[in-house]
Amino acid sequence: MVTQQETVHRVDPVRVAWRLAGEEVVVLDTARSVYFGLDRNATLLWQRLVGGATSTELVATLMEGARVDRDRASADVATFLDELLRHDLLQRP
Prior knowledge:
This protein is of the alpha+beta class and 93 residues long. It has a single domain (16-86), classed as Orthogonal Bundle (Arc Repressor Mutant, subunit A). Helix content is 44%, strand content 18%. The longest helix is centred in the last third of the chain and has 17 residues, at 70-86. InterPro entries: PQQD (IPR008792), PqqD_sf (IPR041881).
């Protein structure tokens, strides 16, 4: 039986500098000198991504921390990961 492992997403520590500011995170793309501000829900996900997390783990984090249902959490996680990848803020598998 073949099992497929889920991708572990991780913030790119070479390209990204970040700081927690209250309940939000400020992210600096050091390659482009561009800042991003993350709201409370995105901060929940970001903090998991620093150490590495799968989409399933991120969905569970959002469901618990933001108290949203699985469908909403799944859609929000997919959108967030797409945006981070589009801006090259995550390590590529």
